[in-house]
Design a protein that fits this description.
Chains A, B: It catalyses: 5-(methylsulfanyl)-alpha-D-ribose 1-phosphate = 5-(methylsulfanyl)-D-ribulose 1-phosphate. Chains A, B: Its EC number is 5.3.1.23. Chains A, B: Keywords: Amino-acid biosynthesis, Isomerase, Methionine biosynthesis. The structure is a homodimer of 353-residue chains. Chain A is α/β, with parallel strands linked by helices and 353 residues long. Chain A has 2 domains: 7-131, Four Helix Bundle (Hemerythrin (Met), subunit A), CATH 1.20.120.420; 141-345, Rossmann fold, CATH 3.40.50.10470. Chain A has helices at 34-42, 49-64, 72-87, 94-106, 113-146, 171-178, 195-206, 219-226, 250-260, 291-294, 339-345, and strands at 7-10, 13-17, 28-31, 151-155, 184-188, 210-214, 230-233, 237-239, 244-247, 264-267, 273-274, 295-296, 299-300, 313-316, 323-326, 329-331. In chain A, the strands form 4 sheets. A 7-stranded mixed beta sheet of chain A has the order 6-5-4-7-10-15-16, with helices on both faces. The longest helix of chain A has 34 residues, at 113-146. Chain A is globular, with a radius of gyration of 21 Å. The two termini of chain A are 30 Å apart. The interface between A and B is large, with 56 and 56 residues.
């Protein structure tokens, strides 16, 4: 039983878990060229903002080793070209651009190409390690909040395979397992793309965490019938007032938690906060293709040509969020203090975000 | 554009819509023998309590014509044998046993075999017509309640193809269409078996009603984003206090309706009430096989052997139900009067149930 990882750097080699094949096939693909890294990100073999950033960072460092020049300026030029190419693999992935940006800045001060190459790998490793530390810290805070609670529900996959290790919403279960604390996790399947059924169930099974799959429609009945004590989910973006955009279906769960009087937790790194937006109404909600809902793989479910509404995310109002668990500590959106004040007041554990 | 029917009796022939093939294939199968009717019910080609009862009634009447005796006692004996065989096709279907029981009683007074054969067909026709009238009446009452409302959400298929015609929860949309009143219906796909995506979407499209498909997980966001004004669903069983068992996912919707302050309606014939049960906690919830959730058709979604919780129904507490719409009128479970008192107080429209 081990916590599965999505990006592995070992013996100077980069391997990524092809998440499109899960759970039927567990395949780690070795990426040797910049083009392969670009393709892995573009084709969604790697998913989860932190995991994408980490894979791209290693990819850039890997490709840099192939540039056979001793001219540091020319080297920087090549790396910047590679960087632009990688960022274009998924233009909306903020974390990807951020990670690549860190690597590019890092070699601004390099004196030799040799040094630059080493520093790129160092920086990629740093980004990875920082993310693992942040997830671990989120897990610590979540474990405290979950205290005596055992039965917890989640949706989508805010897990180890979306990050360096541990994940965000799934971090307390992994960390708990390491410490002999057992949870009973209920994973919502997460229509339309089944990230819960395909990824979260697999990941927790791999780690030896007790997990039960339900359809999203069973959430209310399950909370009552199984005595669910808390719900914990990840986040895509959190605005200044605490409104949180996350995978479609999250808002359902928040309203159910409210109805049943159980806590509803968001687990997310500080980097998820977008304080430039005041409330969730400013967050644009991506609408995706009808086929994602009307068909499953090659299997048509609804009549061909059916009109479908397919929003990818929803926004949970802050008032339904008991707490936001970050690597720096726990933020309570309904406290008197603003979120911004709480963000800067909580004692840092030393992780850079 | 016509309202699709599930059981058709025409020119002394019985045809049923094979609902397992929907929406890809629209196939009406002519049933000529008792064995074929048994098989159609057993294999779930026909679904929906009223539709099953109607198909069985016609099936019994059809088979009776083949009994070539002139001895009325012997004829009754044969019919009773057939009746027992048909009832066994789906032992838990209360409506099936009830319909068959009506036919069997009907020939108690028949003087000749010829008369008996005619009366069986007459009774089957009567059961069918009464069900259509009841559904139509439910539609009338629902149209009144929905008044100015246009955007309505539903789950599963409490539709024309589950009844003689019109359905229960879908009756106002069909009846509205006949009268030029347009609705915008949002159909939840209804995991795990997709009755919403497969049946409701198809049925409403056939009838020319504007319908949009969403996953169950999109309900909360859709209520807000699209301005849903009411939710209307069917029922499997309603207890004396108004608690209502219906397809899994119904309770989710009831709690969301409550959170958004929009009405939540149950549409069901009076026969759905089980006044012998005081509250919903007495209703046993059937749990079904893990494969229904973990795989879709032949396509495996979750890892093989995944632990699944798969309740087929949930129970919505009466306090979340704005009104129960029956063929006799509208019952409000949260009024001072008991449901039983309301059931007998509402002016009957003459339908026998």
């Amino acid at each position: 039983m081990t916590i599965p990882l999505s990006v592995i750097w070992k013996d100077e080699q980069l391997a990524i878990l092809d998440q499109r094949l899960l759970p039927q096939t567990v395949h780690y693909e070795t990426l040797e060229t910049l083009e392969q890294v670009h393709e892995a990100i573009f084709q969604l073999k790697v998913r989860g903002a932190p995991a994408i950033g980490i894979a791209a960072a290693y990819g850039l460092a890997l490709a840099a080793r192939r540039h056979h020049t001793i001219d540091i300026d020319l080297f920087r030029h090549y790396v910047k070209q590679d960087a632009a190419y990688l960022v274009a693999s998924r233009p909306t992935a903020v974390n990807l651009a951020w990670a690549i940006g860190r690597l590019v800045s890092r070699i601004d001060q390099s004196r030799t190409v040799e040094q630059g190459k080493a520093q790129l790998i160092e920086e990629a490793q740093l980004i990875r390690d920082e993310d693992e530390a942040a997830c671990r810290s989120i897990g610590e805070h979540a474990l405290e909040l979950l205290a005596e609670k055992e039965k917890v529900m989640t949706i989508c996959n805010a897990g180890s395979i979306a990050t360096a290790k541990y994940g965000t919403a799934l971090a307390p279960f992994h960390l708990g397992k390491e410490r002999g604390r057992e949870f009973e996790v209920y994973a919502c399947e997460t229509r339309p793309l089944f990230q819960g059924a395909r990824l979260t169930v697999w990941e927790l099974q791999q780690a030896g965490v007790d997990v039960t799959l339900i359809t999203d429609s069973m959430a209310a009945h399950t909370i009552g019938a199984k005595g669910i004590e808390a719900i914990i989910v990840g986040a895509d973006r959190i605005t200044a007032n605490g409104d949180t955009a996350n995978k479609i279906g999250t808002l359902n769960l928040a309203l159910l938690a409210h109805a049943y009087g159980i806590p509803f937790y968001i687990a997310a790194p500080v980097s998820t906060f977008d304080l430039s937006l005041q409330t969730g109404s400013s967050i644009p909600i991506e609408e995706r293709a009808a086929e994602e809902v009307a068909a499953i793989g090659t299997q048509q479910i609804a009549p061909a040509g059916t009109k479908v509404f397919n929003p990818a995310f929803d926004v949970t109002p802050a008032k339904y969020i008991t707490a936001i668990i970050t690597e720096r500590g726990v933020i309570r959106p309904n406290d008197e203090q603003t979120i911004e004040a709480q963000l800067y007041a909580v004692p840092s554990k030393g992780e850079t975000i």
